[in-house]
Amino acid sequence: MERIKRITSSIFIILIAMSVNSIASEKSIYGNLISMESVIRDINQNTNIILIDVRDSSSFNEFRIPESINIPIYFIKTKNFLKSKKIVLVDNGYGYHYLDEECRNLQKSGFQVSILKGGIYEWVEKKAPIIGNMAITSELNKIPSNIFFEEKDFNSWIVINISENASENSKKLFPDSIHIPLSNDLKNWANQLMDTIKAYNNNPFLSCVLFNDTGNDYEKVEKIVSEKNIKNLFYLKGGLKDYTTFLENIKMSLNAVSKSTIKPTECQPCNQNLKY
After folding, report:
1. Which of 42, 50, 89, 181 is most enclosed, with most CB atoms within 10 A?
2. What pLDDT score does 98 carry?
3. How far apart are CA 130 and CA 116, in angstroms?
4. pLDDT for 219-252, tens place per residue?
5. How far apart are CA 27 and CA 32, in angstroms?
6. 170-187 in b/e burial notation, b at 16+ Cβ within 10 A?
7. Distance of alpha carbon 4 from alpha carbon 9, whole angstroms
């Protein structure tokens, strides 16, 4: 029992440390981001720039930025020839946490590295050139629960609950979320959303994630959002239901670790307890 308490305490300490590190890292990430416009300007000026897409190879093969190459993030440090290049890291557009950490590690090793602000999602959203299946890019704005869990305290997010009613569970999991229930008057609803986002316009790196109870009916929201030209908007994949399931799975994993304690066994020959 005492060991379980120590494990549980350690988990809380780790989670607190992660939150503190996220706050500190958020200050550094802004200096590592580069806008799509700056990247295009550098390409047009024939600067020694190279776009490295760090998504998995299947995603890269489905669609990609022209002239970009696909290298897993942790392999870049083994490519010394890239030290003479101006590297821009490209991902889906919402995974800044791990990118920023590796970006700083690469900089310490002598690489010139920055991160494409908004990733390939913003590139597509601003209608920049893309090679591949454009139909698949429509899913780029759906953020999985595990990624949002890692990013929610790190990046600059507005979390908006568009469910008809804000459940106690949603308030507990997203205490800072803003409730703007989706109504039949979509235009009026969209205006409320725009007014809410405008209140944070002093933050150029702001992103907004919408969620409801089940993750359904995002399509009609996306249509009105597109008409209103609202940018940097994501949707929590599977809604509150999938996010709750994800957290429950984490809890089960932690409980499994707690229960896997080594119990003292009795030494048969000498009838003495072995202590660990």
Report:
1. 89
2. 78
3. 15
4. 889 989 888 888 888 999 999 999 999 999 998 8
5. 10
6. beebbeebbebebeeebe
7. 8
